[in-house]
Fold this protein.
Amino acid sequence: MLNGLDLFSEETMRGHLGKKKEQHPCWKGGKITDRDGYIRVWVPDHPWPRKGYMMEHVRIVELRIGRRLAPNECVHHNDHNRKNNSSDNLTLMSRSHHSKIHRTEDAHKFPRGKDGRWRGYI
């Protein structure tokens, strides 16, 4: 109860039933941030998305190159900021090259013990 009004009564819930996208008061323009920090955009006609949303940086690069990404390609954020999806910050590269870049840049986060084995994060 809030100010004498039951928030979960049928009277209060009835106003939003059937409202979708722009008509719903909680609509945020078709952009959400997933739990990994990537921005996802509403693209219902794209063959790749799950539930109509796809990663914005992938969409930007696909529109720039004029085709879908190949299975062995990925998009790299040059400044490592997952929310900075400006076109000049995104680089298309192979998955293997992307992995090599991150292994060399993130090597200081994975220290080795005296026996030479990885100990995990610092």
